[in-house]
Structure formats: C-alpha cells, structure tokens
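W.,

You were right to be curious about this one. When I first looked at the sequence I had no strong expectations either way, so I just let the prediction run and decided to look at it fresh. Below is the sequence, 182 residues in total, followed by the output.
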Amino acid sequence: MINIFKETEAILEGHFLLSSGRHSNRYMQCAKVLMYPDKAEIVVKEVVEKIKDLDIDVVVGPAMGGIIVAYEIGRQLNKRAIFTEREDGVMNLRRGFEIKEGERVLIAEDVVTTGKSSLEVAEVVKECGGEVVGIACLVDRTVGDIGYKVFSALKIDLETYDPESCPLCKEGIPYIKPGSRK
C-alpha cells in the first residue's frame, strides 16, 4: 500500500495545518491516489476485504475527502453511497440523500486523524435514526480510541502537534492548509 502512496506522490513533507486543527510535518494527500481509478480500486479493495462481512446498508462520506472513497466502497460492495457536506459550518445530508430509520451505516473517509469529520457524520446518522457500524478510510492516523472501529488500507503514525507547541511554528516555518475544511 505504501508504494502506491509513494508512486502517486501522495505523501507530502513540510508544515501542514490539518483539518483537525493540529499541525504536522507530513500530510497524506489521498486525492493524488484517488485520481487514478486503477490505484483507487486497489487501495479501497484492501479496506473492503476488512469490512466485507459487516452488515451495511449505506456508505456515507463527508465532503470532500470521503466522497470518492464512499463511492468506491459502495461500488465494490454493491451498496448505496452518499455524502454529507457542511452548510453554514454544520454537517448535513443534502441533494435528496437520506438515511432511513434503522439503516446500518459505514462512514468512509480518505484520512482519519482525530475523527472530527467522521464524528460529525456519525451525529447526522444518529439524527436520522441510523446506526454507525464503523469507519473505513484509506489512511488511519488515529492515536487512541475515537469511539468507532476504524478499518483502513494503511495505518501510519505521523507526528502531529498542538498549534501552541508546534516545533515548526517555533522555527517560523509557515504552514500550508491542504485540507478541504476552510
């Protein structure tokens, strides 16, 4: 798996502000993998092998990073795939998408670090009466329990820092904000 991320130049080095608000010296730009359908299929298949026995009705991913991942998982499992998006800073289902009472939902993401976006999606699922069965992602960067089982193609430990204690900030290195959350 790591070779596909290297081949597609999806592992970036520098100073990054993550969607979680934390800083890091490395960033996984999964969009660089996902722009190649053949490589996306291979990486997602690794995740699908780990979740194929779960009882899933629908796959939902947060915009932006989870859209393609949710679609490809849904395609490989022959399940409905939808996405949430922020409206005035709040995660919502739009575009006629719905989760029905009692549906079993897999949340799909590109990268999970703190689980912030996934947990926002989980709240939407619960508000609709659905049940979250887990979180699937291409890259798992989590440290500790985020409340749901995480299934990934790749588990990596990359250093992250609180903005107040970030050594890169202390060195005066400006950060880049590559994620979709502005």
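Here's what jumped out at me. Residues 2-170 form a domain with the Rossmann fold fold (CATH 3.40.50.2020). And, maybe more interesting for your project: The chain has a mean pLDDT of 92.

Coffee later to discuss?

I.
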